[in-house]
């Protein structure tokens, strides 16, 4: 029997992301990240914004649990406004009215990091600090007790004296066009309750499909996880036979048929960003 620590950890409480990973044949367990979803938008580098958020979620879980950790974060951008989950029904109504008859962009950031239960950095850093430029990655020097202030540096995860796999961080952008919606259509959709926990106040995989006229790009990205990109990241995760990603699940790039994806302790790797 394989240890729980050898399994991929999804750092998300989203049922949509769980369903997408299951459909892809990926074996995983769920650990919800203890981070507040607050967007401090200071620029239009939306891809960087979601990559930072995904990395924060993954690293928070990686500090507490061993094994590869996948974090993700999705936003909707329409006419320069970043739309997360609506605060209430009035906010959802406002979002749907703005999306009506327009194209908008859906960005999802994904981050894959190696968790060992207590992460530290081998150079000074500031926990939770945003990166310089648009790298989408930041570093922190942490022990189980908390962060130690210092300068920013390229990310590297260290557990004790053993170097873990370097984070993989990437993002996906999909363009979506809404039909022109009537007031009655918006009110009927709000009455379903579906918009309330969705970025942009709609679910393309649910009743919100009736609102959409066209999609350009990755469909699963609009649901909340760019599955092809995640599979590529898992396929590139370090493998050494001791703590390897055993990619035997149907639908996984470069994988032999007839099995599952299992992830364990991984060796050092060169940082990579998509």
Please give a structural write-up.
The protein has one domain: Maf protein (Alpha-Beta Complex), CATH 3.90.950.10. Helices cover 22% and strands 25% of the residues. The chain has six helices and 14 strands. The protein has helices at residues 15-23, 46-62, 89-99, 183-191, 219-223, 227-235; strands at 8-11, 28-30, 66-78, 81-83, 103-116, 141-143, 146-148, 158-159, 162-163, 168-178, 212-216, 246-247, 261-262, 272-273. Strands 1, 2, 3, 4, 5, 10, 11 and 14 form an eight-stranded mixed sheet that branches. It has a two-stranded antiparallel sheet with strand order 6-7. Mean pLDDT is 75; it is low at 119-163 and 240-274.
What is the gyration radius calculated from CA atoms? 19 Å
In DSSP terms (H or I, runs of 4 or more residues), the helix count works out at 6
Q: What general form does the structure show? A: elongated
Largest sheet geometry: 8 strands, mixed
Query: What is the CATH-assigned architecture?
Result: Alpha-Beta Complex
- String of helices and strands: EHEHEEHEEEEEEHEHHEEE
Number of β-strand runs = 14
Mean pLDDT: 75
Poorly predicted regions are: 119-163, 240-274
The computed structural class is alpha+beta
Helix content: 10-25%
- Tell me the name of the CATH class: Alpha Beta
